[in-house]
Design a protein that fits this description.
This protein has 676 residues and is mainly beta. Helices cover 14% and strands 40% of the residues. It has a 6-stranded mixed beta sheet. Strands 35, 36, 37, 39 and 42 form a 5-stranded mixed beta sheet that branches. It has a 4-stranded antiparallel beta sheet with strand order 3-2-1-32, with no helix packed on it. Bound molecules: [4Cu:2S] cluster and dinuclear copper ion.
Length: 676
């Protein structure tokens, strides 16, 4: 791997110090306008723009000078765009919109490149080509519960798929269609050493989404969670070592993996324990039917025992995929339930793995369960079976605390000081509260300590490394659903709004009022419109943990195999070869020419075309556009790409480079001629 040349960390620390000093100087300057010349020029700007001290402070905290790099990178789901968006923090500059489930022309993703087409086609459903995704939960690979910067996973809720992105080149390497379910939600999350990528279901369906009438919902429909085995050496999920659990058809929602003391366990919550079937059957629509009951069930899963069952072959076959049946899970003590308050959404495990934090959308509390108490209740058999025979643990026996945090709590993140941050959907605030032992003791424990207003209707929050075993604190991003009047109006479809919040300071007062808003030490820094789709979850990693290639390590590199393609054209062996009705093109690209730059075939020929970008300079990317054939490639330095098509249209097709790569970029072109 090439070493990357980052601005030294020391330099970045100085930068932060400088920014803070400048902030102080500015605020001081604002109070004593006219004292010094420099202060005078700052204050002129501040006065002209009518900025408050707090706004100036916020601006300085997010300002990353030209040429400097951000301290963190946030990987955010791109929602309906089917992609992942990488954003620098604190500047909120977009670094890359990583193409995943949706073709993307700039990266040449899905426009003829044979290896990429194979990745996308693996995500098709039967004969239907699926060319978009609804990405929800990105998950960075972990080592010992900490992000290691190697891989990123993401789910597609709309079609129950998962994708693997290699963070050496930030490209998607694998897409897998879940064989058990047609829709998912509780994914992706990883176990602390990325042995498994978790994909939980959502809306129940018969296993393999076969047909069954909704009247038979209770008997025929099922939920699921799938454990995809990740092979780190190959950088791929190994389907042959992966398996799913058959669950009752409660709508599983989010999952999280246990860590530290709870490593080896997985927690998924659910809604629709009511088994609502919709209006045409029982008169209650899903909205009313699904939220009718007082409790839903947190699923507590012993992953190690599940793995034993899978290895012992205790599975049934669903579309060629092994699924451990529900009765076996119950008998072996793999699955337990815990009642959780009305319409739960988030489940988040504390950094040490001691606590499971659940939020019910229709309950103003976060409910915190203790892992120790859960284990005790299991040992004591302190349960009653549910209608499918799954043991439901006694709520009071496993509950550690409940804290009133506001109306509509959803998701929780953690910091380095023993605080948790819960998004409050209906109140449009983020609530900060203190964890209990070992994080906080006595009076300090389990207390609401701050509520910062956001704009508006927050979904997830993401704190810097805030779901790992060692959260960083510093920054939190609130991923909001509605922006209302926050930005210049671009017509009726408004962007979502990401808001950066400084959480580095301790609360000033020990408690705050749950009915009001009192940031109590937290500060809103920046609004960022997200104009590509609705970002659900995001993860924020320290930038110095990422170590991507600057250029591909060798000329002729195939990003699909992450090694040199033996077929790669190299300088001196460029050629066009005919083999019956197949024409093989071996082409190189370099500033500012393609070799060869004339290719002639006959109508009906199959064309297999390889291009190597032989550049070894940083950022010397060439594009390749072939008009009329829907082909566009991005050829990064060193990369070889192969595309294939049938020359079904005769004519004259000038091809050209789509990246302005040099003064003679416009001359980087050629002709593809198809004889009639
Ligand atoms: S979900 Cu969208 S705000 Cu898919 Cu994690 Cu909660
Ligand atoms: Cu190569 Cu423009």
């Amino acid at each position: 791997m090439t070493e990357r040349s980052a601005p030294p960390r020391r330099k970045r620390r100085w930068l932060v110090l400088f920014a803070l000093t400048a902030a102080l100087a500015l605020v001081a300057g604002a109070c004593t306008a006219g004292d010094g010349e420099a202060a005078g020029s700052y204050t002129d700007i501040i006065n002209e723009r009518g900025l408050t001290d707090e706004q100036v402070e916020a601006a300085l905290k997010t300002y990353v000078p030209s040429g400097q790099w951000d301290e963190y990178v946030m990987f955010a789901s791109g929602g309906h765009s089917g992609q992942v968006i990488a954003i620098g923090i604190p500047s909120m500059r977009i670094l890359k919109n990583i193409a995943v489930f949706t073709p993307e022309p700039w990266q040449g993703w899905g426009y003829g490149n044979v290896e990429q087409m194979k990745v996308l086609e693996a995500g098709n459903v039967g004969d239907n080509q699926i060319s978009w995704g609804d990405t929800h939960h990105p998950a960075l690979s972990e080592t010992n519960g900490d992000y290691d910067g190697q891989f990123l996973f993401i789910n597609d809720k709309a079609n129950a798929r998962v994708a693997v992105i290699d963070l050496r080149d930030w490209e998607t390497k694998q897409i897998l269609k879940n064989p058990v379910s047609i829709v998912d939600h509780g994914g992706t999350m990883v176990t602390p050493n990325t042995e498994y990528v978790i994909e939980g279901g959502q809306y129940g369906n018969p296993l393999g989404w076969e047909y069954a009438p909704l009247e038979e919902y209770e008997a025929e429909y099922r939920g699921m969670v799938t454990f995809w085995k990740f092979d780190r050496d190959k950088g791929r999920i190994d389907e042959s070592q992966s398996f799913a659990l058959e669950l009752p058809p409660y709508w599983q929602d989010l999952c999280d993996a246990g860590k530290n003391v709870s490593e080896g366990w997985v927690f998924c919550n659910s809604f629709n324990v009511e088994l609502a079937k919709g209006k045409s059957v029982d008169g209650a629509d899903f909205e009313a039917g699904v939220s009718a009951g007082e409790n839903d069930y947190l699923h507590v899963i012993n992953l190690r025992k599940a793995e034993e069952l899978f290895k012992a072959g205790e599975t049934i076959d669903v579309k060629g995929f092994p699924v451990i049946p529900l009765d076996k899970l119950i008998d072996a003590g793999v699955l337990y339930f815990i009642p959780e308050p009305k319409s739960p959404h988030g489940i988040d495990i504390s950094p040490g793995g001691e606590y499971m934090v659940v939020s019910g959308k229709l309950d103003p509390h976060v409910t915190i369960y203790s892992f120790d108490k859960i284990q005790q209740a299991i040992a004591d058999k302190n349960w009653v079976p549910d209608r499918y025979g799954v043991p439901v643990l006694d709520f009071d026996a496993v509950k550690e605390a409940q804290i009133e945090v506001g109306l509509g709590p959803l998701h929780t993140q953690f910091d380095d000081k023993g605080y948790a941050y819960t998004s409050i959907f209906l109140d449009s605030v983020v609530s900060r509260w203190s964890l209990g032992p070992p994080y906080k003791e006595g009076d300090e424990a389990w207390k609401l300590v701050g509520r910062i207003p956001i704009q508006y209707n927050v979904g997830h929050v993401a704190a810097a490394e805030g779901d790992t075993v060692s959260p960083d604190g510093n920054y939190l991003v609130s991923l909001n659903k509605w922006s209302i009047d926050r930005f210049l109006p671009p017509g009726p479809l408004l962007p979502q709004n990401l808001q950066l919040i400084d959480i580095s300071k301790e609360p000033i007062n020990p408690t705050v009022d749950v009915t009001g808003t009192d940031p109590n030490g937290m500060q809103l820094l920046y609004d960022m419109p997200m104009a590509l789709g609705e970002p659900h979850y995001a993860q924020i990693i320290k930038a110095d943990k990422l170590n991507p290639f600057e250029i591909y390590p060798e000329v002729g590199w195939d990003p699909a195999t992450m090694q040199v393609d033996p077929e790669a054209p190299v300088p001196g062996n460029e050629r066009v070869e005919r083999d019956g009705n197949t024409v093989h093109v071996y082409m190189t690209a370099v500033r500012s020419r393609y070799t060869p730059d004339r290719v002639e075939v006959k109508k009906g020929d199959r064309v297999i075309w390889h291009i190597t970008n032989i550049e070894q300079s940083l950022d010397a990317t060439h594009g390749f556009a072939l008009p009329g054939y829907n082909i566009t490639l991005s050829l990064e330095p060193g990369e070889t790409a192969t595309f294939e098509f049938t020359a079904n249209e005769s004519g004259t097709f000038p091809f050209y480079c789509t990246e302005f790569c040099s003064a003679l970029h416009l001359e980087m072109a050629g002709y593809f001629l198809v004889q009639p």
